[in-house]
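Long-time lurker. I teach an intro course on protein structure, and each term I like to show students one example going from raw sequence to a predicted 3D structure in token notation. This year I'd like something fresh instead of my usual example. Would anyone be willing to generate the tokens for the chain below so I can use it in lecture? Attribution to the forum is fine with me.
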Amino acid sequence: MTTILVTGGTGTLGRLVTERLRADGAEVRVLSRHARPYAVDLREGTGLASAVAGVDTVVHCASSPRGGDEQAARNLIAAAREAGVRHLVYISIVGVDRVPFPYYRAKLAVERLVEESGLGWTLLRTTQFHDLVLRVLQASAKLPVMLLPAGVADQPIEVAEVAERLAGLAVGAPAGRVADMGGPEVRTFPELARAFLRASDRHRRLLNVPLAGSAYRAFRAGGHLTPERAVGTVTFERFLAERFPG
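-- Reply from a regular --
Happy to contribute to a lecture. Here you go:
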């Protein structure tokens, strides 16, 4: 039986990847900072060797916008090489090579580490999950006026669809960088905000706020979008209907 290790296996994506792999009959180890028996902080690496021992494939979902992704990847790759792991699958973000946003730069650096790891590897980039867009809008809605980045659109995708794709890649052969996955629609932030307000039965004024900097300019230019790969099927409204029933 194939043994697969999922880093970040209790997170938004990793949890669904784990469920899908187990449903398909794989033996899955869940690695996170608090999930026993494989409670490992990848940035420190303590306990990582035992977690990867006997593993065929690693699906690397663990990530943090607070930093540390590059060191975590170095530790994981070193342990995977030592353990003879044959396949490393990494989830990244559309536009990491076009948008000079600090978190994107870190994800791009990890991509390069994966590509140069000497392991068999597969890399999938997707657009932002519905869940993240919802969190951003919920935070903005705490104010009487929702402040939105002027001129920026997004292409949110359903995390369950990404999990299905990632699980399929994990049980296959190393494939290098595969085709990007984008959500079904490119939507402006005012459109997304109005959909959220309707679904959550709230009323807020919207205010488009121009921002500064090269990252903002790249977001305005659509560097994080992939309209030619709009393969997702779940719209933001459908996602919201499940989150705010009735």
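Some talking points for your students: The chain has one domain: 3-243. The chain has a mean pLDDT of 97.
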